[in-house]
Amino acid sequence: MSFQSPVEIPGVSNMDFLRMACNARRSTLGLTELGPLEFYGFLSPKLAMLNMDPKFLDRNVNEGFSGGEKKRNEILQLAVLEADLAILDEIDSGLDVDALQDVAKAVNGLLTTKNAVLMITHYQRLLDSIKPTYVHIMENGRIVRTGNASLAKQLEEGGYRAIADV
């Protein structure tokens, strides 16, 4: 699960955090844990996918990170965990155009027929890059409409009144 505002974890490097999380999941799945060198080999393509400098791994988790760095870090965590289900809360929040494209490319690269991503967003710009299978519109804590990607475009163009009248 990603958060709109991820917390900082002072004193814990990204490398250690990611390797411990990865190995905990691998252990749960009955797989052997990855040593530091094996893990770095596993991690390197995921860093490249997000256009992240490997020096980033030496920094403490989210400590002093910009909004874009926090979002990239969350997607890196998702890539490392190889989650079956991810809930991404406003991953487009605070991202510039380039960072949004990198994050969208990474999320698209993580999607398979064996996993699912539930994204929460208020903006079409994310959905222009990550094509949803379903769009659910919520109002007062309830799903009031469900459709395909065209429903999000309809909402963006005409607001809630446009979808309420249909």
TrEMBL record:
Family annotation (InterPro entries):
FeS-cluster_ATPase_SufC, P-loop_NTPase
**Sorted alphabetically, which Gene3D superfamilies does this protein's record hold?**
6.10.330.10
Superkingdom: Eukaryota
Q: Name one GO molecular function term.
A: ATP binding
Q: Which UniProt keywords apply?
A: ATP-binding, Nucleotide-binding
Q: Which PANTHER family match?
A: ABC TRANSPORTER I FAMILY MEMBER 6, CHLOROPLASTIC
Q: What is the name listed in the Swiss-Prot or TrEMBL entry for this protein?
A: ABC transporter domain-containing protein
Source organism of the structure = Picea sitchensis (Sitka spruce)
